[in-house]
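Recap from last week: sequence in, structure out.
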Amino acid sequence: MRTIRRDGWTAADYDSEQILRELGHRDAAARVNQARRRRPIRRAWRTLRARLRRRATNAMPTAGIDWVAARAAADAVNRGDTGEADRIVQATADPRGTAFAAFRFIGVE
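Predicted structure tokens:
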């Protein structure tokens, strides 16, 4: 939107002011100015929270992964024996995590 006045008000700001006055607010212009004010601390906090959440959800737990079984399953896949790889992975405490860990070793000799 294009600014209309030097203070940076837009047509939407004037519309908001008119609506607030019609609703009976005496300080409509002050309320519009308050709504337009920047809030750097709030923005920084939201950014930090989003980054922390992203790291926590993307991190893959490695506690239950059997790395020896993952390496053996990857070797079986490299040989072309996917059935054997599936049996190896399913015999572990964390089959899903071990299967994903095996991807690190597929194609690696």
